[in-house]
Amino acid sequence: MPKPKAPSTCVVALRCSPEQRAELARRAAGQGIGVYLRAALFPANDNSPLPRQPRQPSKDDVALARALLQLGQIATTLRDQARTAELAGTLPEDERPLEDIRHQLAAIKTLLMKGLGVRER
Question: What is the reported pTM?
Fold first, then answer.
């Protein structure tokens, strides 16, 4: 069985007051506080920022995004069909069912956007 690979870096947590954190941010002068502290504590080392792992979206986020995509496709198709019917002069006399569908789709879209943490335009 192979040995587990030792991590190349580790995280060091530091508790400080809000005033101390503000002072660190002021001293960091626009760079990250971690970068500033590494440079201040280990000036002889190569203090370039460490590469970050790209973030992978969660399975829930992917599923929500797919549902939002399908919802957009349904809304586009419904809008195109309504536009075609209007141009052909074949709109139903009672448009309430179409309006209800439009409102329901808008409500679903809002819930999905909220679930994804995306602001609507």
Answer: 0.41
